[in-house]
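Check the record.
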Amino acid sequence: MSAPDPRRGTVLRGAALVLTMDPDMGEGPLGTLAHADVLMEDGMITVVGPHVRCGPGTKAVDARGRIVLPGFVDAHTHLWQSAIRGRGAGLGFYDWYGTCVGPALPAIGPEEMDRFVRLSAADALQSGVTTVVDWVPAVDFAVSEAYVRAVDESGLRFVHAAYQELSGIGLVRKVVQDLVAPTARGTAQVGSAAFPGYADTVRAHADLARELGVGLNLHLLEHPDDRAEDPVGMLEEAGALGPRTLLNHVIHITGAELDLLARSGAAVAHCPLSNMRLATGVMPLPEFRRRGIRAGLGQDGGTNDCGDMFASMKAAVGLQRAVSLDAGVYPGPREALEMATLGGARAIGEADRLGSLTPGKRADVVVLEPRALNFAPRGDWPTQLVLNGRPDNVTDVYVDGIPRKSGGRLTGVDVPRLVADAEAAADRVWT
């Protein structure tokens, strides 16, 4: 099925509320506009406001009564991990990894990877996620090729953070240049991890990221045992900290280390549902906020269990309140919504293109129906979006102005076939 041509233009007419996430465009920090239109042309946002005039051939979509907002940015995930959904539910991090990731990954060939990635990508899109930052483990080139093709053909915008051990680091260069660079919506990072004993590997990854002119994406201090050495000091010594560094989890960190991260300009991805599931701890998110460290929300693949960013936003709010006993602690619902959109775009260095409905940015847009059993009656819609919202409230999703979900259904996706294919792939991996 050929993709619709975004050059014709699409206008979302008469939305009850548009959350532009750009305070210069509307009221308050979220830049809200009531009863407004959103015009998308040539894959970009071109006009946002009331009674927008359109050229001939523009498709009009009735958005009356609905909420329009930017697509969600999942700042840290592992799309392949639909392969391990529901497994190791009673295990902590390292036991879970040894029971689930360790056995599964070597058994996944190109065909299985294609099926798992397509399933996760479709789940993300139907949930309103339009961009994923995907930390991809060490797999061979054929599996990487299947991986990149699957996510690219899904219609998602993606950042492919390719990881290899030191002995195979040349493969990262090949994946970045030969597989990711030619895609329409893909960009690359070099994946790494600040684990004990990884100093040489991290240094090599940082050097390669600089050589390729891409970002560096690392797991850092997810588990208390990760403090066995001085991981933050190791990153500093390796030249791995800077404005193009994205650090995932960052739970067991000291105040002095936070100060160092702030000075470096590095950004972080907060994965609350994964951290809860694996009992790894609670990220001191208010401390990051006080230091001005950029932060996005991540779902972390198989330990988030699904692509539901609404659940992640709610968890980000509730987890800090539960540990602080303070209902006013950061983030509140509006701040969590900002983390899931513009905050994620800032964390990955893409705020000039993504994260808000600002004219000139890419047309990654979500339409949400609040007239639903779980959402009505109207109180404060931005708060309700975080505390009440679910993927089934998402009626339409656009990436580059192309509809990927329309009228509540994914476009061009045979969902029963996708599920059946993933089930068959999982049977092969786990038998």
